[in-house]
Amino acid sequence: MMKQPGNKRGIGGFTLIEVLVATVILVTAVLGLAQVSVATNQLHSTGLEKAAAIHAVERELAAVAATNFTTITATHDTRGFSVTLPGMVNAALRSIKGDADGLPGTIRITAPTGDPAHLLEIRVVIDWQGRHGPQHYERTIRLSSLGAAS
């Protein structure tokens, strides 16, 4: 009497279905991690853009405040400026399409009391084309002729 081969179920290993399911799960996990990496990179870039904008606004406000009060309006009003990162030469931010001067930053100076000899309001605005569409940052300060650099 010839022996019939026994049930091979007892031999260790994976079936084709098990391998395919494990592969699908692994691929899904890797793609999920890749998406997290892309999102993190985009957030980092957005943070760098915002940091560049804040740095540029502070730099421009310091330049205005260091100017002789009587010449602030003539020197800085409606002046555009580019935005660079510290230590970099190339512009860090692109102006919004259709911007008249092609520069993302603008300084606007007004006299809130109507008398520019005593009080000026300096508004520094940056509008740029960011990774997630148009972005905006601004800061406003007031300078008095009594406390300004002469």
Structural topology:
Layout: H1 16-65, H2 72-76, E1 80-81, E2 94-95, E3 105-110, E4 119-130, E5 133-144
Antiparallel strand pairs: 1-3, 2-4, 3-4, 4-5
How would you describe this protein?
The chain has helices spanning 16-65, 72-76, and strands spanning 80-81, 94-95, 105-110, 119-130, 133-144. With 150 residues, it is of the alpha+beta class. The protein has one domain. The radius of gyration is 31 Å and the shape is rod-shaped. The N and C termini lie far apart (116 Å). The model has no long low-confidence stretch (mean pLDDT 88).
The total count of helices amounts to: 2
Biggest sheet character? 5 strands, antiparallel
What's the Cα radius of gyration? Answer: 31 Å
Total beta strand runs: 5
> How helical, in percent, are the residues?
25-40%
> What is the chains' assembly state?
single chain
Order of helices and strands: HHEEEEE
Q: Tell me, what's the shape? A: rod-shaped
Stretches with pLDDT under 50, minimum 5 residues: none
| Beta fraction | 15-25%
Overall pLDDT: 88
**In angstroms, what separates the terminal alpha carbons?**
116 Å
Alpha-beta classification? alpha+beta
Total number of distinct structural domains = 1
